[in-house]
Amino acid sequence: MQITKAVIPAAGLGTRLRPVTDVLPKELLPVVTKPSLYLVLEEALKSGLKEIILVVSPAKKSFFEHLKEVFPKLAFQFVIQKEPKGLGHAVLMADQAVGPNPFMILLPDIIIDHPKPVCLQLIKVFQKINRSVNATERVPRDQVSLYGVYEMASREGRLHKAKRVVEKPPPEKALSDFVVTGRYLFTPDIFEVLKKTPPGRNGEIQLADAMNTLAGRGELYAYEFEGLHMDIGNPVGLIRANIYFGKKEYGKSIYQGLV
Ligand code: UTP
Asked: Is any atom of ligand 1 closer than 6 Å to the C-beta of 167?
Protein backbone atom coordinates (compact mmCIF):
# COMPACT_ATOMS: atom_id res chain seq x y z
CA MET A 1 0.00 0.00 0.00
CA GLN A 2 1.18 3.50 -0.86
CA ILE A 3 1.48 6.00 1.97
CA THR A 4 0.52 9.44 0.68
CA LYS A 5 -0.66 11.48 3.67
CA ALA A 6 1.33 13.13 6.43
CA VAL A 7 0.20 15.06 9.47
CA ILE A 8 2.48 17.87 10.62
CA PRO A 9 1.43 19.17 14.04
CA ALA A 10 2.45 22.82 14.25
CA ALA A 11 0.02 24.32 16.75
CA GLY A 12 2.39 24.44 19.73
CA LEU A 13 3.48 27.67 21.39
CA GLY A 14 7.24 27.20 21.09
CA THR A 15 7.76 28.61 24.58
CA ARG A 16 11.36 27.39 24.79
CA LEU A 17 12.30 29.72 21.95
CA ARG A 18 10.64 32.87 23.28
CA PRO A 19 10.74 35.75 22.53
CA VAL A 20 11.25 35.03 18.82
CA THR A 21 8.29 32.61 18.79
CA ASP A 22 6.03 35.39 20.09
CA VAL A 23 6.33 37.00 16.65
CA LEU A 24 7.25 34.13 14.32
CA PRO A 25 6.20 30.45 14.38
CA LYS A 26 8.99 28.09 15.38
CA GLU A 27 8.50 26.24 12.07
CA LEU A 28 9.59 29.29 10.10
CA LEU A 29 12.79 30.01 12.02
CA PRO A 30 15.76 29.79 9.67
CA VAL A 31 18.19 26.94 9.28
CA VAL A 32 20.79 28.91 7.33
CA THR A 33 18.53 30.42 4.62
CA LYS A 34 15.53 28.09 4.79
CA PRO A 35 12.56 28.11 7.15
CA SER A 36 13.08 24.89 9.11
CA LEU A 37 9.70 23.54 7.97
CA TYR A 38 10.94 23.55 4.35
CA LEU A 39 13.54 20.92 5.27
CA VAL A 40 10.81 18.72 6.72
CA LEU A 41 8.57 19.22 3.65
CA GLU A 42 11.51 18.35 1.38
CA GLU A 43 11.89 15.09 3.32
CA ALA A 44 8.16 14.40 2.82
CA LEU A 45 8.43 15.07 -0.93
CA LYS A 46 11.51 12.88 -1.33
CA SER A 47 9.65 10.10 0.49
CA GLY A 48 6.80 10.15 -1.99
CA LEU A 49 4.25 11.79 0.31
CA LYS A 50 1.65 13.87 -1.53
CA GLU A 51 -0.81 15.35 0.95
CA ILE A 52 0.19 17.40 3.97
CA ILE A 53 -2.26 17.99 6.78
CA LEU A 54 -0.90 20.87 8.79
CA VAL A 55 -2.36 21.24 12.29
CA VAL A 56 -2.14 24.90 13.20
CA SER A 57 -3.41 27.31 15.84
CA PRO A 58 -5.80 30.07 14.74
CA ALA A 59 -3.02 32.63 15.31
CA LYS A 60 -0.42 30.79 13.21
CA LYS A 61 -2.53 29.74 10.20
CA SER A 62 -1.88 32.79 8.01
CA PHE A 63 1.90 32.27 8.31
CA PHE A 64 1.61 28.99 6.40
CA GLU A 65 -0.64 29.94 3.47
CA HIS A 66 2.39 30.62 1.22
CA LEU A 67 3.45 26.94 1.37
CA LYS A 68 0.97 26.07 -1.38
CA GLU A 69 3.02 28.17 -3.79
CA VAL A 70 6.44 27.11 -2.55
CA PHE A 71 5.60 23.38 -2.71
CA PRO A 72 3.22 23.02 -5.68
CA LYS A 73 3.74 19.23 -5.76
CA LEU A 74 2.26 18.86 -2.27
CA ALA A 75 -1.45 19.32 -1.53
CA PHE A 76 -1.98 21.18 1.74
CA GLN A 77 -4.90 20.99 4.08
CA PHE A 78 -5.10 23.07 7.24
CA VAL A 79 -6.70 21.76 10.40
CA ILE A 80 -7.18 24.02 13.39
CA GLN A 81 -6.29 23.07 16.95
CA LYS A 82 -7.94 25.84 18.96
CA GLU A 83 -5.89 25.34 22.09
CA PRO A 84 -2.59 23.52 22.59
CA LYS A 85 -3.91 20.51 24.51
CA GLY A 86 -1.01 18.27 23.60
CA LEU A 87 0.56 16.47 20.65
CA GLY A 88 -1.94 13.58 20.88
CA HIS A 89 -4.81 16.07 20.80
CA ALA A 90 -3.27 17.85 17.79
CA VAL A 91 -3.03 14.55 15.89
CA LEU A 92 -6.62 13.70 16.79
CA MET A 93 -7.75 16.95 15.12
CA ALA A 94 -6.51 15.45 11.82
CA ASP A 95 -8.69 12.32 12.10
CA GLN A 96 -11.23 13.28 9.39
CA ALA A 97 -8.58 14.68 7.05
CA VAL A 98 -6.51 11.49 7.27
CA GLY A 99 -9.38 9.04 6.72
CA PRO A 100 -9.08 5.25 6.68
CA ASN A 101 -5.50 4.67 5.47
CA PRO A 102 -2.09 4.45 7.15
CA PHE A 103 -0.36 7.82 7.37
CA MET A 104 2.77 9.50 8.66
CA ILE A 105 3.35 12.11 11.33
CA LEU A 106 6.37 14.39 11.01
CA LEU A 107 7.25 16.66 13.91
CA PRO A 108 8.33 19.89 12.26
CA ASP A 109 10.88 20.77 14.91
CA ILE A 110 12.84 17.57 14.30
CA ILE A 111 15.14 17.69 11.30
CA ILE A 112 16.82 14.46 10.25
CA ASP A 113 19.53 14.48 7.63
CA HIS A 114 20.28 11.36 5.60
CA PRO A 115 20.45 10.65 1.85
CA LYS A 116 17.61 8.15 2.35
CA PRO A 117 14.89 10.21 4.06
CA VAL A 118 13.67 8.75 7.34
CA CYS A 119 10.03 8.78 6.20
CA LEU A 120 11.01 6.57 3.29
CA GLN A 121 12.96 4.27 5.63
CA LEU A 122 9.77 3.81 7.70
CA ILE A 123 7.56 3.35 4.63
CA LYS A 124 9.82 0.54 3.40
CA VAL A 125 9.53 -1.21 6.77
CA PHE A 126 5.75 -0.74 6.83
CA GLN A 127 5.46 -2.35 3.42
CA LYS A 128 6.99 -5.49 4.95
CA ILE A 129 5.23 -5.65 8.32
CA ASN A 130 1.92 -3.78 7.84
CA ARG A 131 2.00 -2.43 11.40
CA SER A 132 2.55 0.97 12.95
CA VAL A 133 6.27 1.71 12.99
CA ASN A 134 8.02 4.75 14.43
CA ALA A 135 11.53 6.10 14.26
CA THR A 136 13.79 5.33 17.21
CA GLU A 137 17.41 5.87 18.13
CA ARG A 138 19.64 5.48 21.16
CA VAL A 139 20.63 8.58 23.10
CA PRO A 140 23.03 9.02 26.04
CA ARG A 141 21.39 7.96 29.31
CA ASP A 142 21.47 11.46 30.78
CA GLN A 143 19.28 12.70 27.90
CA VAL A 144 16.54 10.06 27.89
CA SER A 145 14.20 12.10 30.08
CA LEU A 146 13.82 14.67 27.27
CA TYR A 147 12.00 12.11 25.13
CA GLY A 148 9.37 9.42 24.99
CA VAL A 149 11.26 6.25 25.95
CA TYR A 150 10.65 2.68 24.79
CA GLU A 151 10.86 -0.63 26.48
CA MET A 152 11.42 -3.15 23.72
CA ALA A 153 10.06 -6.69 23.64
CA SER A 154 12.31 -8.11 20.92
CA ARG A 155 14.40 -7.10 17.94
CA GLU A 156 15.49 -8.25 14.54
CA GLY A 157 18.36 -6.09 13.29
CA ARG A 158 17.20 -2.47 13.26
CA LEU A 159 13.54 -3.37 13.78
CA HIS A 160 12.22 -3.62 17.34
CA LYS A 161 8.90 -4.71 18.69
CA ALA A 162 7.85 -2.27 21.40
CA LYS A 163 6.51 -3.37 24.76
CA ARG A 164 5.93 0.00 26.45
CA VAL A 165 6.38 3.71 25.83
CA VAL A 166 6.73 6.26 28.63
CA GLU A 167 6.72 10.02 28.01
CA LYS A 168 9.73 11.85 29.49
CA PRO A 169 10.51 9.52 32.43
CA PRO A 170 13.07 10.60 35.05
CA PRO A 171 16.47 9.09 34.06
CA GLU A 172 16.45 6.50 36.87
CA LYS A 173 13.04 5.23 35.70
CA ALA A 174 13.86 5.07 31.98
CA LEU A 175 13.26 1.60 30.60
CA SER A 176 16.00 1.81 27.95
CA ASP A 177 17.99 4.36 25.98
CA PHE A 178 15.78 3.94 22.89
CA VAL A 179 13.73 7.10 22.37
CA VAL A 180 10.90 8.31 20.14
CA THR A 181 12.32 10.56 17.43
CA GLY A 182 9.63 12.60 15.65
CA ARG A 183 8.77 10.43 12.63
CA TYR A 184 5.82 8.07 12.94
CA LEU A 185 3.90 5.79 10.62
CA PHE A 186 0.54 4.75 12.04
CA THR A 187 -2.34 2.63 10.94
CA PRO A 188 -5.55 4.62 11.49
CA ASP A 189 -6.46 2.70 14.67
CA ILE A 190 -4.24 5.24 16.47
CA PHE A 191 -7.24 7.61 16.29
CA GLU A 192 -9.51 5.17 18.15
CA VAL A 193 -6.83 4.85 20.80
CA LEU A 194 -6.28 8.63 21.04
CA LYS A 195 -10.02 9.20 21.51
CA LYS A 196 -9.85 7.03 24.64
CA THR A 197 -6.53 8.41 25.92
CA PRO A 198 -7.03 10.65 28.98
CA PRO A 199 -4.86 13.72 29.57
CA GLY A 200 -1.46 12.62 30.90
CA ARG A 201 1.76 14.50 31.61
CA ASN A 202 1.16 18.29 31.95
CA GLY A 203 -2.60 17.67 31.59
CA GLU A 204 -2.07 17.17 27.85
CA ILE A 205 -3.22 14.29 25.64
CA GLN A 206 0.08 12.58 24.94
CA LEU A 207 0.78 10.72 21.72
CA ALA A 208 3.27 8.60 23.73
CA ASP A 209 0.39 7.36 25.95
CA ALA A 210 -1.55 6.22 22.88
CA MET A 211 1.61 4.55 21.55
CA ASN A 212 1.92 2.78 24.89
CA THR A 213 -1.57 1.33 24.43
CA LEU A 214 -0.64 0.06 20.95
CA ALA A 215 2.62 -1.38 22.33
CA GLY A 216 0.71 -3.18 25.10
CA ARG A 217 -1.39 -4.86 22.40
CA GLY A 218 1.76 -5.94 20.56
CA GLU A 219 0.91 -3.64 17.65
CA LEU A 220 3.76 -1.13 17.73
CA TYR A 221 7.18 -1.39 16.12
CA ALA A 222 10.17 0.94 16.23
CA TYR A 223 12.86 1.19 13.58
CA GLU A 224 16.40 2.34 14.33
CA PHE A 225 16.70 4.83 11.50
CA GLU A 226 19.83 5.96 9.73
CA GLY A 227 20.54 9.68 10.00
CA LEU A 228 21.39 12.54 12.32
CA HIS A 229 18.55 14.20 14.18
CA MET A 230 18.47 17.82 15.30
CA ASP A 231 15.76 19.30 17.53
CA ILE A 232 15.30 22.93 16.57
CA GLY A 233 12.67 23.38 19.31
CA ASN A 234 15.25 24.42 21.89
CA PRO A 235 17.97 27.09 21.59
CA VAL A 236 20.95 24.71 21.53
CA GLY A 237 19.32 22.43 18.96
CA LEU A 238 18.49 25.39 16.72
CA ILE A 239 22.10 26.57 16.89
CA ARG A 240 23.40 23.03 16.21
CA ALA A 241 21.21 22.71 13.11
CA ASN A 242 22.53 26.03 11.81
CA ILE A 243 26.12 24.97 12.44
CA TYR A 244 25.57 21.57 10.80
CA PHE A 245 23.86 22.86 7.65
CA GLY A 246 25.97 26.04 7.62
CA LYS A 247 29.17 23.96 7.56
CA LYS A 248 27.71 21.75 4.82
CA GLU A 249 27.06 24.82 2.68
CA TYR A 250 29.95 27.15 3.53
CA GLY A 251 32.63 24.83 4.93
CA LYS A 252 34.81 25.55 7.93
CA SER A 253 34.87 29.28 7.14
CA ILE A 254 31.81 29.59 9.38
CA TYR A 255 34.05 29.02 12.42
CA GLN A 256 36.45 31.85 11.58
CA GLY A 257 37.29 33.81 14.71
CA LEU A 258 34.76 31.86 16.79
CA VAL A 259 36.71 28.90 18.13
P1 UTP B 1 6.72 20.54 21.45
O2 UTP B 1 6.39 20.43 22.88
O3 UTP B 1 8.10 20.23 21.00
O4 UTP B 1 6.40 22.00 20.90
O5 UTP B 1 5.68 19.70 20.63
P6 UTP B 1 5.83 23.29 21.61
O7 UTP B 1 4.75 22.92 22.57
O8 UTP B 1 5.48 24.25 20.54
O9 UTP B 1 7.14 23.84 22.33
P10 UTP B 1 7.45 24.36 23.80
O11 UTP B 1 7.53 23.11 24.63
O12 UTP B 1 6.35 25.30 24.19
O13 UTP B 1 8.78 25.04 23.64
C14 UTP B 1 6.04 18.87 19.53
C15 UTP B 1 5.25 19.26 18.29
O16 UTP B 1 3.85 19.13 18.52
C17 UTP B 1 3.17 20.32 18.21
C18 UTP B 1 4.21 21.42 18.28
O19 UTP B 1 3.83 22.48 17.41
C20 UTP B 1 5.47 20.71 17.86
O21 UTP B 1 5.61 20.72 16.45
N22 UTP B 1 2.07 20.50 19.17
C23 UTP B 1 2.30 20.36 20.49
C24 UTP B 1 0.82 20.83 18.70
O25 UTP B 1 0.59 20.96 17.47
N26 UTP B 1 -0.18 21.01 19.60
C27 UTP B 1 0.02 20.88 20.94
O28 UTP B 1 -0.96 21.05 21.72
C29 UTP B 1 1.29 20.54 21.39
From this structure: no
